[in-house]
Design goal:
- The chain is built from no helices and five strands.
- The chain is mainly β and 69 residues long.
- It has one domain: SH3 type barrels.
- A five-stranded antiparallel sheet has the order 4-3-2-1-5, with no helix packed on it.
Length: 69
């Protein structure tokens, strides 16, 4: 299943230059190119602390509802 705009995603690897670690959760805010997304990371109060371009292989889409097989 392809990642879409506004999907909630998690990092699968650390991104040390941005001080992000595996498992941090963000939201896809822009589709930059095929398989490349701008992802915004926010704190619990909704304040953005990072916004970076990431490839699909760096992300895991999170699902809150059952997905049809």
């Amino acid at each position: 299943m392809a990642i879409q705009l506004l999907d909630v995603v998690a990092l699968v690897n650390d991104v040390p230059e941005q001080k992000l670690i595996r498992g941090q959760v963000g939201t896809v805010v822009e589709l930059l190119a095929p398989e490349v997304y701008e992802v915004e990371f926010t704190d619990e109060d909704g304040r953005a602390y990072a916004s970076i371009a990431l490839r699909a292989d760096q992300l895991l889409a999170l699902h809150y509802h059952p997905v049809a097989a």
